[in-house]
Amino acid sequence: MARQLRINYPGAFYHITSRGNEQKAVFKSKRDREKFLEYLETATLRYDAVVHVYCQMDSHYHLLLETPSGNLPQIMHHINGAYTTYFNVKRGRSGHLFQGRYKAILVDADEYAKELSRYIHLNPVRAKMVERPEEYKWSSYQDYTGARKPHAWLNRDFVLGYFGSKIPVAEREYKKFVSSLEGKEYESPLKEVFASTILGDTGFIEYVKKSFVKDKEAGKQIPATKALMEKATMEEIIKGVDREFSEGRVSRDVKQYLCYRYTSESLKKIGEQFKVSESAVSHAVRRASKTIAKDKKVRKKADNIIGKLKLSRFKT
């Protein structure tokens, strides 16, 4: 199995998941869950980790984690290593508890922290463990809504800051934000992950690529590195769309949509290519996104283009 690319730098945000071997439970008792939370706390004290959101399921957990010191490997070695030792000693077992390496998706927090926090907090509802997120004790949701005194080591300020400057107001608005999707089907924000590694727009991906992904890593043959180092051109995309679509607004919208999603070009550059404003490109991208979601024929043609050009925005 190919290794996941690890991108580390001070101030990075990550969506972290770690699953039990063979999908087996890693939390079997109340004490197990409490002990894991203790290790999250010590990670904040010893390794400068900032835990924004957490959710303990049965066979895995989710974190929204920030690394001010750029030391994700040390943080995760502490959390998973210490918990595995505790779990094994308690049950007289040995060996790995978690399935392979943890999964870490680098996140553009300004764009995705709110959505990811909601996605994480609704996990127990999607799994039908509870009907409403406030019924689930083993996530940070009750901390966010004021239903209990927040853990001292949990940082709510970043996410709640999007919902108001006064804590009681922010807690109420956050609860409305999460409950608005209760019982509804919605698209996971993780479907937008690029190369199984980064969640962010093209500008964020380009910034990460230029700043933190070095050419020497390309030689390691990590698929995510290859995806980051290679980009389609607008000319290739335009030719690909012309082969699948007749001329018209749908064709033009799909061209701009694919250029926006699968190249590193800015809205300004795309607008210059199509002789329209940046705002017009944004509208075209939204129209194409809706059309592709609703029209199976258009979606099939778009998928054909993506496949033939091997466009590298991989979904997890």
- Given the helix and strand composition, which structural class is it? alpha+beta
Query: Strands of the largest sheet, in order across it?
Result: 2-3-1-4-5
Whole-number total of structural domains: 2
Which architecture of the largest domain does the CATH hierarchy give at level 2? Answer: 2-Layer Sandwich
CATH hierarchy, class of the largest domain: Alpha Beta
CATH-level-4 superfamily name of the largest domain: Transposase IS200-like
Output the CATH topology of the largest domain. Alpha-Beta Plaits
- For this structure, the quaternary state is single chain
**Sheet having the most strands:** 5 strands, mixed
Distance between the termini: 15 Å
Q: Regions with pLDDT < 50 over 5+ consecutive residues? A: 216-222, 312-316
In DSSP terms (H or I, runs of 4 or more residues), the helix count works out at 14
Helix content: 40-55%
In round numbers, the mean pLDDT is 89
Task: Explain how this protein is built.
- It is a single chain.
- The chain is of the alpha+beta class and 316 residues long.
- It has 14 helices and five strands.
- It has two domains: 12-192, Transposase IS200-like (Alpha-Beta Plaits, 2-Layer Sandwich); 231-316, DnaA protein, C-terminal DNA-binding domain (Chromosomal Replication Initiator Protein Dnaa, Chain: A, Orthogonal Bundle), CATH 1.10.1750.10.
- It has a five-stranded mixed sheet with strand order 2-3-1-4-5, with helices on both faces.
- Helix 10 packs across helix 14, helix 11 crosses helix 13 (278-294) and helix 13 (278-294) crosses helix 14.
- The longest helix has 20 residues, at 72-91.
- Mean pLDDT is 89; it is low at 216-222 and 312-316.
